[in-house]
Amino acid sequence: QSLRERKMLDFKEMFRSVDILMVDDVQFIAGKDSTQEEFFHTFNALVDQNKQIIISADRAPDEIKDLENRIRSRLQSGLVVDLHPTDYELRLGILQSKVETYREHYPRLEIADGVLEFLAHRISTNVRVLEGALTRLFAFASLVGKPIDMDLVQDSLSDVLRASERKISIDEIQRKVAEHYNIRLSDMVGPKRVRNFARPRQVAMYLCKQLTSRSLPEIGRRFGGRDHTTVMHGVKRIEELRQQDGQIDEDVELLRRALEA
After folding, report:
1. Domains in the chain, please, with CATH?
2. Could you write out the DSSP letters of every residue in 148-198?
3. Neighbouring C-beta atoms of residue 29, cutoff 10 Å
4. Residue 126 or residue 167, greater confidence
5. What does the pLDDT average to over 158-164?
């Protein structure tokens, strides 16, 4: 609209006069030269005024391809935080807090032991879905006049429980393995063959084969475009090492449990 009405100056001024600028999924501006140019100048204008900028992305700044170096350096100049999915204890705490709130409106509803623990374990990918499931439970139980037990959970949340079945992705495995071995994700999927990177790479390939339904060629493509025979070799090597090296076997089992939690 600003382009059509030739009011680009007003458009720029709107963003450069805010106290806090929050941008979600900033990786989508990568490769878009004019957008990056405008973002760069807006970023500088806000910093010069001592304003705050909050950026989110699905990867670290130095791992976003086609992002201009001048923008990447500015994103790295602030506090960079790696956010992980909520753990079981936090999800359970959220549910317990919500229950206390709902009791004001549904004081007579009873919740059977184990229900909150079951929900916190099964619905692990999205807190909003978790909260929505609890809201639906209270409303349904109030409507039919029954306590909230496991039978009611299965009846009223069957679609949510099906959609929340644990699906482990190649990306998740790669991140978890890189974190476990304290190496950069880019090094693990990159071309370097030194042992410090090659062994974690083989462990990640092995877990991808064991925990996902992806084909060997697809797994190879996700590891820097490698051939499926490389994946086969890596999987076989880890299978052998699990029998010979107690540390490798312990690493693989620890990672597997963490990914399936």
Report:
1. 8-76 (3.40.50.300), 88-163 (1.10.8.60), 170-260 (1.10.1750.10)
2. B-HHHHHHHSHHHHHHTS----HHHHHHHHHHHTT--HHHHHSS---HHHH
3. 22
4. 126
5. 81
